[in-house]
What we know:
- Helix content is about 40%, strand content about 10%.
- It has about 325 residues and is an alpha/beta fold.
- The chain has a single domain (about 1-230, about 300-310), classed as Rossmann fold, CATH 3.40.50.
- The longest helix is centred in the middle third of the chain and has 24 residues, at about 190-215.
- The two termini are about 30 Å apart.
Amino acid sequence: MVLFHLALFLLLMKPNDSVGAPGVFIFGDSLADSAEMLGLPYAPPFSDPSTSGQQTLQGVNYASAAAGILDETGKQYMGPTPFNKQIEHFQQTVSRIYTMFGQNSTAVYEYLSRIVIIVSIGSNDYLNNYLRPDIYSTSSQYTPLAFSNLLVQQIAQQLVTLYNMGARRFVVYSLGPIGCTPNQLVGQSCAERVNQMVVLFNSALRSLIIDLNLHLPGARLSYVDVYGILTDILINPSTYGFSVTGQGCCGVENGRAQWNCIAGATPCNNRNSYIFWDSLHPTEAVSRVVAQRSFLGPPSDIYPLNIQQLASM
C-alpha cells in the first residue's frame, strides 16, 4: 500500500518536473491569484467536495473575500474565513494527504517541502478594519506604525505555523497602493495617508521575510513588491496598454465609486484598458502583469527568488 501511494505521488509530480512544484496552495483574500504559470490546474476552493480527492495534491485555494490577518477583520460581512482559519483548513488537507500516502511520513515531508504556498492578505485589515472607525476601534487603539507591527507579528506566527506543518516554499505578496484605488481616491489624487500606512506594513513584512529565511532551516520565502509593480503601472499606464486609471470597469455609478460591481449593469467593453475592475480590485490584465513579474521578475520585483526559481529548486 505504501509503495502504491509513493508511486502515485511520483506520477503526479512528473508532468510538472520542468517547474518543480507538485502543487500550489493559496491563502488570502479576494486579491489572491492562482499561479497559472506553474503549469498546474487551477486550485479548487477548499469548500469544493473534490478537494478531498487525489487532485488535492495539485493544490487547494483557501482564500476568502474580506478575510484578514486578524480574525475580526471583515466581520461586517457574511463570515469571511480569516487567515488563521484558512491555516486550520490546510491542516485538514495535510491530514488527508497523510492518508493518501499511507501514513508514509517521509513521502509526505518530501511532497510538502516542494509545494508552493501563495500568501496574499492584509488589505482588508486596513480597508475593512483600521480605516473603518465606525465599526472598529483599532485606529484609536494603535498608531499606524503600531498597527503595522501588530499585523506583521501576527503573520509571522501564521507563516511559522505553516512551516511547522511541513511547508518550505512561500511566496508572500505585499499590499498594493490602496490609497490609489477608486474607493480611496481624494478627487483625482491618491490618499497618501493610506499609502503611508501600507508602506509601513510592507517594509516590516519584507524585513520579516528576510528574517524567516535566516532562521527557519530549509525555508525559502520570497517577497513580492506588489506596491512597486502597481505604482509603476499607475505612473506609466500607457507603457502597459492602460488608459483608464482612476475608475473601475464595473464600479462607478453617477460619478461615485462603488465597492463592488453594480448589479445589473454592463461592464465596460474595453476592460483591458482599465487598471481597476471595480473600486478595489485590479483587472485581469493588471493581474497578468503582476503574475508575470512575480514569476520571472528580478529581485526588485520579487526577492530573493522569483517563483520560477523558487519552484525549480
